[in-house]
Design a protein that fits this description.
CATH architecture of the largest domain: 3-Layer(bba) Sandwich
CATH superfamily of the largest domain: FAD/NAD(P)-binding domain
Number of strands: 17
CATH topology of the largest domain: FAD/NAD(P)-binding domain
Largest sheet: 7 strands, mixed
Shape: elongated
Number of domains: 2
Radius of gyration: 22 Å
Order of helices and strands: HEHEHHEEEEEHEHEHEHEEEEEEEH
Distance between the termini: 20 Å
Length: 314
């Protein structure tokens, strides 16, 4: 079906009961992409609702240093300020957990037993880190223990670093960290399935590696060491945990959406519209999880929705 035909679907008559409120867009998740889209749509004087469960990955980031005009800002501050800005443009914000999204005509978004109707939906629900079960992890999380090279790699510059993970990609991450940030690296892997070529390259790069299970992070105010299951302690000032993340996408299971070749992320258009007409997906579910990039995705999606809403009047 061509783009013209796709847009015709949006203009089909939909039976709505008297008194039912129809939003122009419901945004699921108050991440950077969702908030940026809400600000754009609010400034277009559209009816917008954000449903947010709270506690996303951005809110856990303590030091964001790669956002234009902000030398350093916390993720929680970005979310707080973004919500205030969205509300100043009459965007509604509700705390809640979205459990289902359906599209029999208009979109039906369910938060518990409450149903909301909307012409468009934008998903900005993000992902959840796969964190290892290591004692004291949350004591140092965000200050000495990091999970994102792009977000926090710079904070390891010149420090004694331990990279932990469970895949061959973790070895590649260690090489990248040495190229950019620090030469003092120890690699800790949960698996011993390392090709000999990698072992030789690690030796050439001067990166020692340990096979085993970490059990405890050691330190007072600052991280000092990583304790292994056999009692060995590996001195460190910072740790990069590389176990990936899972997507917060369970509420989309009732929709037949196209995913990528790995059956992980969703496939979208250049304007971040998914394979279902009217559904937009931004952030890590479809692309990158950087604040500035997700915000740009949200802006592009909102501008496309503006055009689509004009077409619905034709």
């Amino acid at each position: 079906m061509g783009m013209q035909g796709k847009h015709l679907i949006d203009r089909e008559a939909v039976l709505v009961l008297p008194g039912e409120k129809i939003y122009d867009c419901i945004i699921i998740g108050a991440g950077p992409g969702g908030l940026q889209a809400a600000i754009y749509l609010g400034r277009y004087n559209r009816k917008v609702l954000i449903i947010d469960r709270g506690g996303g990955r951005t809110s856990h980031a303590r030091h964001i240093e790669n956002l234009l005009t902000q030398k350093v800002i916390s993720g929680s501050e970005i979310i707080r300020l973004g919500m205030e800005q969205a509300e100043s443009f009459n965007v509604e914000i509700q705390k809640g957990l979205v459990t289902r999204v359906l599209k029999p005509g208009l979109f039906e978004v369910y938060a518990g037993e409450v149903k909301y109707l909307s012409r468009f939906v934008l998903v900005s629900s993000g992902g959840t880190e796969n964190l290892p079960r290591i004692e004291n992890l949350f004591k140092f999380f965000g200050t000495g223990i990091f999970t994102c090279i792009d977000c926090d790699g710079y904070r390891t510059t010149g420090k004694k670093l331990v990279v932990i993970g469970n895949s061959i990609k973790t070895v590649q991450v260690a090489f990248g960290m040495k190229d950019m940030y620090t030469a003092d690296i120890t690699l800790v892997l949960y698996t011993d399935k390392i090709p000999e070529a990698y072992k030789d390259e690690l030796a050439e790069e001067g990166i020692p590696f340990v096979i085993g299970r970490p059990v405890k992070f050691i330190g007072g105010e600052r991280l000092e060491a990583l304790e292994m299951q056999d009692g060995k302690r590996i001195p460190c000032e910072v740790v990069l945990s590389h176990f990936g993340y899972k997507l917060n996408d369970g509420f989309l299971s009732g929709l037949n959406l196209k995913r990528d070749a790995d059956n992980f992320k969703f496939v979208t258009s250049r304007d971040y519209e998914a394979s279902l007409s009217g559904l937009y997906i931004v952030g890590p579910l479809a692309g990158d999880d950087q604040v500035v990039i997700a915000a740009g995705e949200g802006a592009m999606a909102a501008i496309d929705m503006k055009k689509r809403l004009f077409e619905m009047r034709a």
